[in-house]
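During the reporting period the student researcher (J.K.) took over the structure-prediction task from the postdoctoral fellow and processed the backlog of single-chain submissions. One of the processed entries is reproduced below for the supervisory committee.
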Amino acid sequence: MVTFKLPDIGEGIQEGEIVKWYVKEGDHVKKNDIIVEVMTDKVTVQIPSPFEGRVEKIYYKTGEIAKVGTPLVDFSTSESIKETQTNKSEYIQQVEAKEVKENLSEKPTMEYGSVLAAPAIRKKARELGIDLSKINGTGENGRITTEDFNKYLSQMSQKKVEVSPAAMTTTSTKPAGKRFEMHGLRRLISEKMTKSKQTIPHFTVAEDVNVTSLVEIRENLKKSNYNISFTPFFVIASVKALKEFPYLNARCLEDGSYEILDYYNIGIAVDTPDGLTVAVVKDADKKSLLQLSNEISDLAERARNNKLKLDEVKDSTFTVTNVGPIGGIFSTPIINYPEVAILGVHRVRDEPNGKFMYITLSADHRLIDGAMAARFIVKIKNYLENPITLLV
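J.K. obtained the following structure tokens:
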């Protein structure tokens, strides 16, 4: 028997959510067959089997969180089977010892006759005066799990509400809301955004940009069969401004210090069916407008189809989020932790004197003062209002 543990998926990744199993216990798999899909705060990856053999045990259910280095699957391989057969007597002794140990460990958890429950659950049951024998245990050998116990408490609470005086005198009731637990990308977004807001003191500055010339350039490019969105222009303008204001191209570290970076990897926020994903354009300062356009389109398409690679979602230094195509004329984006700033761009508005767009900059006030942020966003405004400078 060999145990396959969740491997180190990438820099800084400590855990992943089990999205989908491609095998079940009893299946025979070949080496490099995909066995599981795992979602991290960076990317969703499909993990291949490092062995050929029979799946004996799967440690996590879909939706559960697995830590890097913890067991995922037990396999019986040809090597392990051979070893087991040649050491059969030793194996049997180990199994018998294990069974004895398990039997001994289970004895303290017995209560209310044949009911199995952990000490913490038994203690809580005594405090609340709950008869554990009335709870249907879904764990191994009918063991009452924490989820079983909490579910029973919830049911008892609902029964009490139903017979309360307030409930008896109510003439009309509203339908109960549907409970929603966050999983997958939605859970990861929640955790990352919460950490960003709890850790970073945000502030936002805004500018109104005359994009009349920029719109004209895009239309002329379309006439030449170059269908380029606004986003590559925003990326180039950001990189040029970042080179003049290096403190905004930085990363906050866990010990409270900062790292100012000398490369420009621009994160592009992409709206996908599962939630927001940030794809990363590496070395954006070394690419032309057309190269950026093609790469951004490719990244966005693969993000929506969950095909991004790990390297394409990490190590960003600054993020651009373009909500204009969807709607909204103004927003205050949350910084993509551990970066220190994010640029928000919005819908183009038709005004009597041209076409205008609001841009906003959210920044980390620990490192970036209001004056610096204001100068930075004005610099981006100037580039966008004179787009010919972006093509040089």
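The committee noted the following: The mean pLDDT is 83.
J.K. will present the remaining backlog at the next meeting.
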